[in-house]
Every structure is written in C-alpha cells, then in structure tokens.
Amino acid sequence: MATKTFNKKTTLFIIIVLVISSIFLLYLNRSHLFRLARLQPEAPEHPVKHIILFIGDGMQLEHEIAASLYLYGQQMNLAWHSSEFYRLPCTTWDVTTYNQFAFKHSRPFYDPASFDPKLGYDPNLGGQWPFPLDRSGRKDYFLTPLPVPPEGKKAKIPAADSAAAATAMGTGYKTDEGNLSWLPGDPPDGRLKTVAEMMREQRGASIGAVSTVPFSHVTPAAFVSHNVKRSNYLQIAGEIIKETRPEVVIGGGYPGPSGTGQFNFISEPDYNDLKNGHLPDYIFIEREPGQDGGQALLKAAELAVWNRKKLFALFGGPDGSFEPPLPENNPGHPAIKRQTHENPLLKEAVAATLRVLSENPNGFFVMFEQGDIDWANHDNDYPHMIGAVWDLNEAVKTAIDFVNRPGDDMDWTNTLLIVTVDHANSYMRLKRDEKGKPLLGQGRLPVGQPAQNGQPGVYDLVTYSTTGHTNEPVMVYVYRKGGGHEYVKKYRGAWYPGTQLIDNTQIFQAMAEASGLKIN
Predict the structure, then answer these.
(1) Which residues, 6 or more positions from 299, have their beta carbon under 8 angstroms from its beta carbon?
(2) How far apart are CA 502 and CA 57, in angstroms?
(3) Which terminus of the chain has fewer CB atoms gathered within 10 Å of its CB, N or C?
(4) Cα-based angle 255, 257, 261 (whole degrees, multiple of 5)
C-alpha cells in the first residue's frame, strides 16, 4: 500500500514538473527570449574573398524614395532598388535603447545571455517593414521621449546610436551608445574584434575604411578602431594610423585652410607623420587649393599600387566632412552640381580604393560610408540629403562596374556586396495624394527651410518630426549574383518569427559566414 502511494506521488510530481516545464517553454516562445551569441558560421563550400559594405548613414526608406523621385521620377529606381538586389528590413536598436524600453515597462535591463528582441523593437508597434512599405507603425512609438537609465532623469527619443549600430554590423555585438567596437558597460578588456580585423588575420586580406565624413568619426572608426567614447577622435585616429593601419583610409578631417582649420579629428603629430613621410608604407594625399581631389586621388591610388604601398587620403571642409553635391530645383530636368572639386566624390573614392585593395590575391574587406546623408537629416536639409544620396547611388554603381570588369579574378562568385543603413533619422515623410502617390516629381524640390533653433524643418511637400535619430527599421540590400544574398536571407525572422526582419548584428553573421571566418 505504501509503495502504491509512493508511486502515485512520484507520478504526480513528474506530471507537475512537466506542466511547469511546458509553461516555462511556452513563455520563452511567446516572449522570444534570446541569447546574443555570435554563432560559429558554417564553412561555405566557396567562401567569398571580397566584402564590400556600403552604409548610407541616417538614410531611411523615405529618403531613398525622395532621391529616386528627384533623379528618375520613380519611387524605387536607385541602383540598389533593381531586381539584382535582394532586400530585407532590419532592426537597429542598441543597448541604450533597449534599456529605455525596459525602464519604461519595469523589465530587466539588457543581458546578452537572455533578452527579448521585441523590447528593443516591436514590429507590432513599429511595423514589419519601413514606411511606406508598412504604414502600420505608430508615430508615438517612435517619437515619444523615454528616460535613459540608470539615472532615469533625462528623456530622449529611443533610437540607435551610430557608434553602437556600426559596432553591431562590424562585430556582431550589441553595445551602449557611443561605444566603438567595445562591450557594453565599458569593461577594461572589452575590445571587440571586427570583421575587418578577422579578414586580415584569418584570410590575409587587405582592409579599407572610406567615408565622406572624418575618417576618425563613428562609422568608419567602428570597423578599424576600439574606444569607449566615440568623441575621442584623436585617440581613435592614432589607433587607426599607428595600430590598425588599414591598407586604405579615405575620409574627412583635413585640418588645412579649406578644412576645419584645427586638429579636431587627427592630432598634429600624426598629421605631420603622414605628411612628412614618417610612415613610409603610406602614400599620403590631402586636399589642395585648386586641385581636383578626385583626379589626384586616382593618381595616388595608381602610385600606391605601383610602389606596393598603402593609401591614406585626407579631405574635408570646414565641418570636417566633404561638401556634398547639391541638386537644382529644375522640374523635369534633374541636375546635381558639386560645391567644390577639391574633395572627391564618393564614386571616385570607391574607384581608388578598389584599385588598391584588389591587388591583394587574398581578397579584402572595405566599408564605404556616405555620412553626409545623416548630417543633412539632422539639419532637416532636404536638398543636401538628395545630393548625398545621389553621391551614394553613383558610388554603388561604380563598385558594381568594378566587379563586372573582365580580365581579373574578381567576380560575383567571390564577392559579397551589401548596401544598408545604420539607423533612421528625422522621421521624414513625403506628402502624398489620395492614392498614396508622392507629390514630388523628377527634378523637383520642396519649398521650405531646414531646421532652425532645434525645431524641425518646414516644407510645403515634406514633413519632418525630429532632428534626431529614430528606432524605425531600415533596409538591407544584397547583390544577388553569385548567391551572396543567401547568407543574409537565412536570418530573416530569426528574432522576429513571422516577419522578414533581420537584426543588424546578423549582417556581421552573414559576412562572417560568407567569408568562412572562425569567430573567437
């Protein structure tokens, strides 16, 4: 009798344990708790040798559509909108944004061992695709300021920071805003190895970082340096020049008379070392009064190839960045004019960079950033934004043409080309008619003025709601030829079941897998 009672109790205990386990598993499934781990990629049969990553800083889909309308009179006609590209929506939240939402909902702060992606970005509130592909996103979800923990005092719009977003793409890790390839919480041993560094160490590849903003600024810096504070420009520049030493560096920050006039983005000793030939393995070129920067850069690239040297090019204007080209308000006849020829266009920087990097038979990794898109959107400066997106469009076409060249071993079977965005900016919306068609046409610019005194810009056919970043999803475009898009495609819905969404950390995963890297 005692045995039967014992067996009944044992059976009842097992049943209770199973029920509790089932409830717990159901909870995990519904809350989508994940562990952020850089998965060890499967070794591809034919790993790619060359990775080309384009980043349109602060470029949300509405900006792409606006530029396409101005240039071509059609909504989706930029180079990466063609059928040759596979497209996906992407989340961009960082640890700081995650903790803002966690603080609001009394949830645990971000823990890489157990977190809820829907707390960082909720597609039920923000939409499964960027506007206007999905119009269900709630404006208040994107634009309501929330306290920033741990203080819980200051409130700001939840949005990805450029440094954290670039870190996510470059290392596969989420981190705090302001961190460059460094773990959240800023531990002393928090340096994170980037995909560029892995390509060099494991494949013998060359690496390059190219931007239209200062080379020591956030996005290029995240791929070739490490720092707990994004504004430590002189430290970052020193690491790039003296430690990482990429094969190609092209960017702003020129301290000369046509530039900032100050050593804001590069220290005077480092600048003098480059200029005076104290770093003999670099061919150094800088902005010169009256000199065509594009032509000079292409000549310097040929010189670097001929002498088997690296290339360092320093350009920029008064704010450190290249002066972006500007569109003319000429309905039916779009026209883009350069503000100066002393800085190269991004397409010229692309041509020079690929000329140098492609000499390495082991391949290369390069990141090209059009950073003026973000700066224009912070100012709600519509014309500057159009000119900057045009600059990116021409650069992407140049890269495609370079890969398509016959007579070398570089083609789409060994090259992965991605065009993406680090975060959205400005919550810009084009005004539309009753059928949803934008009112702007080819060659036409809206009438109005950029942001003033911290207030959003005012235009007749465009609305801006903020001068800052937002947590809206952005787009990822991957060139289809050679099947490179399959590496990105496999992550759709992994964190957000039932959607096409990927996360920006998964861009790193895709690049690592495509190139056969081993993740430490």
Answers:
(1) none
(2) 18
(3) N
(4) 45
Identify the CA nearest to 90 among candidates 29, 156, 169. 169
Q: Is 292 exposed, middle or buried (0-12, 13-18, 19+ CB in 10 A)?
A: middle
b vs e for 250-275, b when ≥16 Cβ sit within 10 Å of the residue's Cβ?
Answer: bbbbbbbebbbeebbbbbeebbebbe
Nearest CA to 331 out of 430, 442, 460 is that of: 442
For residue 452, what are the β-bridge partners?
455
Give me the helices (H) in 216-292, please: 218-224, 233-239, 268-275
Helix (H) or strand (E) holding 283: strand 282-286
CA distance 515 to 513: 5
DSSP state of 517: P
Cα–Cα distances in Å, from 520 out to 40, 95, 239, 263, 415?
9, 22, 22, 37, 23
Rounded Cα–Cα distance for residues 506 and 502 (Å):
7
Q: How far is the first Cα of the chain from the last one, in angstroms, to the nearest whole number?
A: 59
By DSSP bridging, strand 146-147 and strand 155-156 are: antiparallel
Q: Residue 73: its pLDDT value, please? A: 97
Name the residue with tokens 């430490």.
520
Kindly list the structural domains of the chain, giving each domain's residue range(s) and its CATH number in brackets, ordered by start.
Answer: 51-96+159-514 (3.40.720.10)
Ranges of the chain with pLDDT below 70: 1-41, 43
Contact between 121 and 72 (Cβ < 8 Å): no
Alpha-carbon gap, residue 319 to 255, rounded angstroms = 10
Judge whether 478 and 86 are in contact, CB under 8 Å.
Answer: yes
Q: Return the closest-CA partner of residue 233 out of 268, 187, 207.
A: 268
C-beta of residue 495 within 8 angstroms of C-beta of residue 32 = yes
Would you state the pLDDT for residue 28?
42
Q: Which of 452, 504, 464 is nearest to 62 (CA)?
A: 464
Give me the residue label for tokens 């791929």: 223
Task: Of 195, 220, 250, give the one whose Cα is nearest residue 57.
Answer: 220
